[in-house]
Amino acid sequence: MQVNVRTFLAAAFLSVALLAPAAEARKIKRAPPPVPPAPPERVTSVEGITEYRLANGLRVLLFPDASKQTVTVNITYLVGSRHENYGETGMAHLLEHMLFKGSTNHPAILTELAAHGARPNGTTSWDRTNYYETFNASEENLRWALSLESDRMVNSVIAKSELDTEMTVVRNEFEMGENNPIGVLFKRVLSVAYDWHNYGNMPIGARSDIEGVPIDRLHAFYRNYYQPDNAILLVAGKIDEPATLKLVQEYFAGIPRPTRALPALHTVEPVQDGERQIILRREGDVQVAVAAYHSPSGSHEDYAALTILGQVLADAPSGRLYKALVEPGKAAAVFPAQLQLQDPGMTGFATQVRDGSPLDPALATLLEVVEKPAAKPVTSDEVERARNQILKQIELSLNNSEQVGLTLSDWEGMGDWRLMFIARDRLKKASVDDVQRVWVKYFKPANRTVGLFYPTKSPDRVETPARPDVLALVKDYKGDTAREQGEEFDASPANIEARTVRRELPGGLQMSLLPKKTRGGTVFVGLALRFGDMKSLVNLGEVPTFATTLLTRGTAKHTRQQLQDEFDRLQARININGWGSGMYLHVETTRENLPAVMALVAEVLREPAYDSKELEQLRTEMLTGIEQQRSDPGAIASTAFQKALKPYPKGDIRYPDSLDEGLVNVKAVTREQVQRFHRDFFGAQPAQVAAVGDFDAAAFEKQVAQLFGGWKAVKPFTRGTSDYFDVQAQTRTFETPDKAQAIYIAGLNLNISDQDPDYPALMFGNYMLGGGFLNSRLLTRIRVKDGLSYGVGSQLGAEAQDKSGSFNVFAIYAPQNLAKLEQAFKEELQRALTEGFTAEEITQAKSGWFQGRNVERSQDSGLAAKLQHYMFIGRTFAWDAELEKKVQALDAAQIRAAMVKYIDPAKFVVMKAGDFAGAAKGAAPNSQQKGSAP
């Protein structure tokens, strides 16, 4: 029940993302070129990425990666919210939505995306907008994607009728952000920090501009910026470079270079001349203080040192702010937030303080640490630790061509894609003196937004440097040598089975090993431990959560900081997720580091320190996270829904706590309980380990046997059942004052497992109703047609070993639209149950479903997790092949019969949470902020 603040801030600061539906097209025909276009010009190549340029100005980046079974097509337009004029805030993002409405040759984009099994999206930031789709590698799919992007570059729908409904969807996305006071606070900070520059406006825009933008201005914006000379096309993944370049020429060269000249933006933010402060008062449960400072453009040489400094100050647990605020108990958390953009941006720090504790001392301490660099200069150890942490993330990301391809959009927005590599090189070279210099230069009171204005003689102001000449900066840049390439891998169930080796150690530990060559020698490991039985796990509250979460916060041999440093040095990402009766550990590293990483993992699992100070810090974090959700409609409705559908007795490990019960349980945990739980329940007999990627299978098997083979829990494991409850229908409504967005959840339990003959038809019926999302009935009706919700769909779950499943529908919406939303759900459910689905719908859905599953199996991380889970339930990928065969054979009658048999809306449990009283009075709930992709 915790909120990941860092993840939220990434969404709040970086971009507004969208996945939107299809509609009719505006007829803007491409004129054929009068003469055959000139061949593409090769511009440069850096670390496996080659840039070409077409005669019409389109820049093309090709990034072959044979180890991928997928291809990503990403097109970036150099236009974002900073290009908007007065009354147009949010227009770049609104246009992003509209480009999913269809084009001349692709009138049903959403349907096509689903049919090709693509993972698509679009995002809008201050400097750029991008659209991408990742799909199964094939020439037909690549041709389709290039045809789609070339067509909607100049032939997209910009229709008033579509704008009227899509505007309400975007407004609902706007309202989604309004439920989080932290995001609203950052929006206010930006608006106060900037006097004139458009970086002071969030990409989501003002509510009034979203509602009132004229269609002709949207047309003009589109025609001006969506042109080949303002775009960069990237194709990454399993491609043949010459053949792909030929296809790009075929689909894009016929678009003429426009004759218009793009406007030159000339607004320069003046030097800030004194402290500024903004106070936000609204409903909420956790206090927050923020201090933000103007910083240079993302391409400036100072930015590398600033990035390191941000880590030195705000990292957990090594950061100076963490040690000054969190460890002494003055605050629950600290975190950094940076805007790295084309023009000078912002660098900020924030801290959370529980309600009832004083906020002013926390703010005073934050400013004391940040604004007095001379008091305790930065050390070489701090710089190296921060550098290792940052470079680890970069190096691991560079192993994934899909991730690199999408990340380049932000660097292109800053001026050029090669800046990504230059920034990395600068990070490697930044010295202690560089870090201390930028600390002194930028973090001054006169450059801060948090304070008040005071007349001051000779104010100490900060001049941000001019933006560098990026073309000169990148002209001769070559980068490092290209990375090790992986093998081509067929992700079919049959090939996965043929390549997977399974073992079972004498003590019962099970292993699934799938060695293969990967880009950069990456390897993924998944390890699951199982705890006790339903009797021995009674009345443990949050003890299992503490026992698993604290594992990476120190061992008998290493402190929390030492562990983090060592994992950083070994370029390893470690994640542990726990549930009441078990835990799952995920490892990502490289071939050469795997043995050392696994030895450290064994130490983490077998020798935790369970330090008292770390336990108290975790308690504070968890209490803060729960308290933050007490007024959140989503948390309230979903918690009530789970309690209604799973009426286990209190004390049972499967019992879902209420938010208040969670607070009580977190407060009750003691160090002795946590130590006893580890001593009694942790062990590797039984356990499951799966590894996928570049590793020596024999050596790995031997090491796992040595590390875990003899490790046995005191209390033996017996699998607990997941029970079916035939619960009574009920409807409950929860008032959440001052929340602009409401939540609706409705569903029931199902007496079914995924082994039942009805499962394939029921699963696929849910996929078409609302589970597939891209072209589902519910999304088409409630989001596309009615414009009531940004996020809507349905979910179906079924256990493998027990007859216990569930079905639900859900939506976010404005509380005043509740009646319309419920009517739409009722009508679409009834239509599915009485009329079923058409043959055309089924054919299209099957195409998308099959290709989507292949894309999922192509992700090594997910494949390792699935292999691990399949060992536990006694399943192989032959089950996947059989399920796909059954789905392929389904017809409309079978799908409808299964849905009628199991889904009865009259038996639904319904939970609604929102500011319904405020809506009834006609008052719009107070809010503002932008949203991110679903």
What does this structure look like?
- With 934 residues, this protein is of the alpha+beta class.
- It folds into four domains: 5-252, Metalloenzyme, LuxS/M16 peptidase-like (Cytochrome Bc1 Complex, Chain A, domain 1); 286-474, Cytochrome Bc1 Complex, Chain A, domain 1, CATH 3.30.830.10; 493-708, Cytochrome Bc1 Complex, Chain A, domain 1 (2-Layer Sandwich), CATH 3.30.830; 730-920, Metalloenzyme, LuxS/M16 peptidase-like (Cytochrome Bc1 Complex, Chain A, domain 1), CATH 3.30.830.
- Helices cover 42% and strands 17% of the residues.
- It contains 34 helices and 23 strands.
- Strands 1-6-7-5-8-4-3-2 form an eight-stranded mixed sheet, with helices on both faces.
- Strand 21 and strand 22 (805-813) form a beta hairpin.
- Helix 10 (302-314) crosses helix 15.
- The protein starts with a helix and ends in a 14-residue tail after the last helix.
- Residues 1-16, 18-29, 451-457 and 923-934 have low confidence and may be disordered.
